[in-house]
Amino acid sequence: MPTTHIIIVAAGTGSRFGSELPKQFLNLCGKPVLAHTIEAFRRATPDAEITVVISRQMLPLWEELCRNHDIPSHRTAMGGATRWESVKNALASLSDAPAGSIVLIHDGARPLVNENVIRHAAACARNTDGAIPAIPVTDTLRQLDDNEVLSTPVDRTAFRAVQTPQAFMMWRLREAYTLPYRPEFTDDASVLAAAGFGNIVLTPGSPENIKITTPVDLIVAKAIMETRCNKGQ
Prior knowledge:
The chain has about 230 residues and is an alpha/beta fold. It is built from seven helices and twelve strands. The strands form four sheets. It has a five-stranded mixed β-sheet with strand order 5-4-1-6-11. The chain has a three-stranded mixed β-sheet with strand order 10-7-12. The radius of gyration is 18 Å and the shape is globular.
């Protein structure tokens, strides 16, 4: 039985992207965005079991795309109304997985994640409460007051931008996801922290590990991928 499990969350509607087709299914250099994401994990963790979380209404399209693009084999789980619910559903589908398994949870719309980011997070999850990739914030930051009118500058060196995959032990995830949903559960690390697992470490992320959210992001992703191809990566 696999000792590493990958959960790729791809059940979103992509409303911010402004396309009728959710962004994870859009074409990126000849393949769906989600196909590139799956391939990145298959290269980095060839023995891991991959579960892709898909909305029920998009499952027929995804199955067709898999046939047309020779996408690596994987399991599927049904998405929920929120990211939290989608991850919970994926964990339920892995009920037979050992408690000591490592689980990496990744956004389906982050197709440019590299092997080092994946492996660093996985390696640090076993002896901590969790590991999350992060990069320094390069933009100047200001904090709004309670009325969201005035703002003050903050020291950006004290902040990091969080990415995925986020890595945890299976038993910790299962315990944390028994909590009822809260609006502040914006990622898996926030769920673990609410459950009392506070020793969550930061691991090296990558500026190229962007999340495709807008049409501009898709253009940037294409440019990064083409640069990698030219370098033979």
